[in-house]
Every structure is written in C-alpha cells, then in structure tokens.
Amino acid sequence: MKAVVIILDSVGIGAAPDACDYGDEGANTLAHCAEAVGGLRLPELERMGLGNLCRLLPHPVSVSGVAVNPNPAAAFGVMQERSAGKDTTTGHWELAGLLIRDPFARFPPGPPSFPPELIAEFAARTGRDVLGNKAASGTLIIEELGPRQMREGSWIVYTSADSVFQIAAHEQTIPLEELYRACAVARELCDPYRIGRVIARPYRGRPGAFRRTEHRRDFSLPPPERTVLQALADAGVPVLGVGKIEDIYAGRGITEAVHTGNNRDSARVILERLRQREGGLILANLNDFDSLYGHRRDPQGYAACLEQADAVIGQFSRTVQGGDLLIITADHGNDPTFTGTDHTREFVPLLVQAAGMAGRALGLRAGFFDVAQSLAAFFGITPMPLGTSFLDRSRTRRDA
Hints:
Layout: E1 2-8, H1 29-36, H2 43-48, E2 75-79, H3 88-95, H4 116-126, E3 130-135, H5 138-152, E4 155-159, E5 164-170, H6 176-190, E6 197-204, E7 211-212, E8 217-220, H7 228-234, E9 239-242, H8 245-248, E10 256-258, H9 263-274, E11 280-286, H10 288-294, H11 299-319, E12 325-329, E13 348-353, E14 361-365, H12 370-379
Parallel strand pairs: 1-11, 1-12, 2-14, 3-4, 5-6, 9-10, 9-11
Antiparallel strand pairs: 2-13, 4-5, 6-7, 6-8, 12-13
C-alpha cells in the first residue's frame, strides 16, 4: 500500500479570502498564467478534474485552455490555508498536520535588513565579511555583488518578503561545503529570531553571465509539533522525501531522502519508486514553478513548466496501482503576472486518485491539514489532531 503526495510548488488557483491582508487581492497563479499565454494545454490534469476546481471557489474563474470535465478521473477540491503566512515552510507544515498561528519573522527591505549583531556574529563565526544585508532578487543581487564577492571572498546575504536568510556564494570562490557549513552556523544564529529558513544559494559563471546552480539547500526550523510524517515513521511506515522535502521538515519524520535540484530529476525518482512495490509514503516537492518562474515573474516559463509537468503527472496517475493513493496539491501561490516577486496568498488545488473516488467533488477544504488527516486514515494510524479526511468521513477530528 503506497501513498504519493505531489506538491506543485506555488501552483495556486485563486486569491484566498484573506489575500488582502497580504497585499495579494486578485492573485490567481493558474488563471493568470493561462491568460498570459493564450491558454494552457494540460490534458492529464484536465482528465483528472483540474478544470472543475474553479466551480468550487467563492468567485469562480476559469483556467483558459483547461475544460470542465463531466467525468473526471480523480476526486477534486480546493484547499484554503489556515496558518498565518504564505511561505513554503508554513504551507508544507500545514499539509503535514500543523496550524501555524504566529508567522515567522520577516525583515525590512534595508539595507540593513537583518540586525547588525546577527550579521556581526555570523561574520565572526564564519571568518568572512558580509555584503548586501538587504531584500533583493537572488539573480539581481549576484549580478550586483558577485564581482565584488569574487574579489573579496565575502558572503552575499539577503532576504525577501519571506522569512529567509539567504547566503549566495560563487562556487569557485567559496567551496560548496564551506557554504553549507556557514548555513548551519546561520541556522543556529537565526533560531532566536524565528527565521523560517536559511538558504544556500550557490552560483557559477563570470560577471555578466552568472547562473545559480542546483546545489541549493534549505536549512529550516524544525516543526514545533509532531507531524503526520513523524506519526507514520513511528508506526513503521517508510517516508521518502523527494526534492527539498527533507530540508523543509528538518529531517523530522523522513526515513529516506533523495535530494533533487529540478522537476525532471524529482519526477524520475518518483517514477522509479512507484514501479517498486514497497509500501509507504512518497512526499515530493516539484520546485521549478516557484524558483525559476514565479519569483522571476515569467508567465511563459511558468506555463511551459506546467505543460511539462502535466505529462509527468499522467505517468504518475497511470503507474499507481488500484489500492494506492495519489494526491496532487500545492503549498501557496506565486502569480507570475502579479506585482513584486513574492508568493501570493491563494487557494490550492486538490486532486485525489484512489479506489472508488473518481468524479467525487471534495469541496472547499478549510485547511491544508486535511491532507495529513487523510494520510492517517489511509495508513490506519491514530487520527491527527486537526483536519477532516477526504478518504473516510468517519475518521475526523475537529479543526482549530
């Protein structure tokens, strides 16, 4: 018995009711991306029922090119985030069963963004000075400060609208392992400030032609409570994390991890494991939508990435066996046509392929943690404190 949860990083489907609190009123990653390219071609997701989701939203909006399917191959719904925040960590933690009431710390655009004492201690403990210390686009700041970093050997430290302490380093100036060690130091120093993630941002190339590499690593705060991943692992259920999953959960509840740097490699690992008959949970993050196209406000690239992923999702759908469970969802939005470069507070899609569920409308779910509750029901472990299973209505708990 196997469950597969695919998180399409940032693939939101319409502004949440509280989007105005985040400056995101009117955002819609899927619909606006489709409009920008004259319609999306997503035959596999359309077959599963993606086009049906817009009917479930408070203010229905169609996704151009994706039709309503009268006989969808999957159950379909949308989920509204209950936690405070719109970042990767918050979304993933809620999917795993947690409710984050207090958002992670965020910092002013600067410079300086981070407190001087934090930067001074980081520089002292790592033996290198710090450049930047401001909010910036990752690609733009390495264009600006990369040449100086190559001359001086200093760290480039920057943040964004998310709770992140990002460290960029040219791989031929600062060795990759030294960058990772510096991130571990920063993680320790950032804990008292409640910064969600420290992110290693390595890059290569020469001035005017820098490019970020796939050696990114995330160093997250550990989840504050027990997730469904930990509950499954404690019950003897193998939990495989693919992509950056191990980093997001700080390794908690992950019994095996395969760290991949792009959607292509993640999909390859998922398909390899699906073809094996060992049971357990496969939890995967497909990150290219967010990191390559959403933050860079590139709707054409985002659309192409969606269409590439659609074919792979079709392979997942046809490879899972009759008694297995496949869940397709997301962790937040990142509308590539929106202002700024930040994530957007949106509903996320929910497509569920399981025995006897084809065509069922799952409605508008009040919390991402319904996924965790459903995994608990599927594997027959003690129900989680929050959420309602969409697999077995008798196995529920009251949400907060």
